[in-house]
Design goal:
By secondary structure, the chain is an alpha/beta fold. The protein is built from 12 helices and 7 strands.
Length: 277
C-alpha cells in the first residue's frame, strides 16, 4: 500500500463535472434538482430536528440542495465550501448565502448556529484537519446545538473485511469450475484521490472521544431498506432506487442489523455530536 500524503485534498479535485456527474446523489439532482434529496441528506435533515427561526450551517455544501430544504423549513441557512464550482451551483440552487472558506477557519462569530451539517466531508480530511474543524464547529455552535455527521462509507464493510471474503469465495468457486467473477477493487481512483481518511465505527468513536466530543453514532444499512420511511409510499415518480421487499427489510432489521454486527455490516455511519461543555 502506498504511503498516504497528509497534505489537504486540493479544491481543484472538486469541479462542476464532479458535482454533476460523480458526487453522491448526482442521479437524484439530475432528476429532481433540489426538490428530492438523496437518502443520506434526507435522513440527516430528519435527524436535525430543525425549527422555524433556527440557524443552520452546511459545511461543504456542494450543490446546495440541503440548503434549499433547510430554507424551506423556515430556518436561516448558510453554506460554505472551498470549491468555486460548488459555490456557484449552491448559490443558484438554494438562494442562500454561501461563502468560500476553509472549514478549519470559519468566518463566523462565536455561538452563531443551532445546527451544523458536516455530511460526506469527514472522509475527505486528515485527522489533523478534523481536529481544527471540530474546534471551529465547537466555537460557532450555540449552547445546546449539535453537529450532524455523515461518513461516505464504512471502511470495514466492503473495502476491507467483506471484500477479502468475497474475493476468496470467488476464487474458491472458480477452482471448483463455477463461473464467478472477482469483485470490483475496493478503492476506485476517485477514492484514492479524495477519500484520504475513511472511517469504521471504531475509528469515528475513538476520534470523537479523543477530542472530547459526545456522540450518538448510528450504523446505516443499505438505504433500500429505509426508502418508504424516508419518502413515503409510493415513492416519487421515476425514483432511481428500488425499495427492498418488506420481508427482507424485516429480516434485516430483526436478525442481521443488530449490535455489534451492525457496526460491520453498515454501509456508512450517521452521528449527532456535541462539543465539550
Amino acid at each position: 500500500m502506498r504511503k498516504r500524503s497528509r497534505e489537504p485534498v486540493s479544491a481543484r479535485n472538486y469541479s462542476e463535472e464532479y458535482y454533476l456527474e460523480s458526487c453522491g446523489g448526482a442521479e437524484f439532482f439530475r432528476k429532481y434538482g433540489p426538490e428530492v434529496l438523496k437518502p443520506p441528506l434526507a435522513h440527516s435533515l430528519r435527524r436535525a430536528d430543525l425549527k422555524r427561526g433556527m440557524s443552520a450551517l452546511d459545511i461543504g455544501c456542494g450543490r446546495g440542495e440541503l440548503l434549499h430544504q433547510v430554507r424551506r423549513l423556515g430556518a436561516r441557512a448558510v453554506g460554505t465550501d472551498y470549491s468555486a464550482a460548488a459555490l456557484k451551483l449552491a448559490a443558484e440552487v438554494s438562494g442562500c448565502p454561501v461563502l468560500c472558506c476553509d472549514a478549519k477557519s470559519l468566518p463566523f462569530p462565536d455561538a452563531a448556529f443551532d445546527r451544523i451539517f458536516f455530511l460526506g466531508i469527514i472522509d475527505h480530511l486528515h485527522d489533523w484537519e478534523l481536529e481544527k474543524c471540530f474546534a471551529e464547529m465547537a466555537r460557532v455552535l450555540k449552547p445546546g446545538g449539535f453537529v450532524l455527521i455523515h461518513t461516505c462509507t464504512n471502511r470495514l464493510y466492503y473495502k476491507s473485511c467483506t471484500y477479502r471474503l468475497r474475493l476468496a469465495l470467488a476464487r474458491a468457486g472458480r477452482a471448483l469450475g463455477l463461473p464467478l467473477g472477482e469483485p470490483e477493487p475496493p478503492r476506485s481512483e476517485e477514492d484514492e484521490r479524495l477519500h484520504v481518511n475513511e472511517h469504521s465505527y471504531g475509528d469515528l468513536e475513538r476520534f470523537l472521544g479523543r477530542i472530547g466530543w459526545k456522540a450518538s453514532i448510528e450504523p446505516m444499512p443499505n438505504y433500500k431498506h429505509l426508502l418508504r420511511g424516508l419518502y413515503g409510499d409510493p415513492l416519487p415518480e421515476g425514483f432511481p432506487m428500488l425499495p427492498a421487499p418488506r420481508w427482507k427489510s424485516v429480516l434485516q432489521a430483526g436478525l442481521l442489523f443488530r449490535p455489534p454486527l451492525d457496526r460491520l455490516l453498515a454501509r456508512e455511519f450517521f452521528a449527532r455530536a456535541w462539543p465539550p461543555a
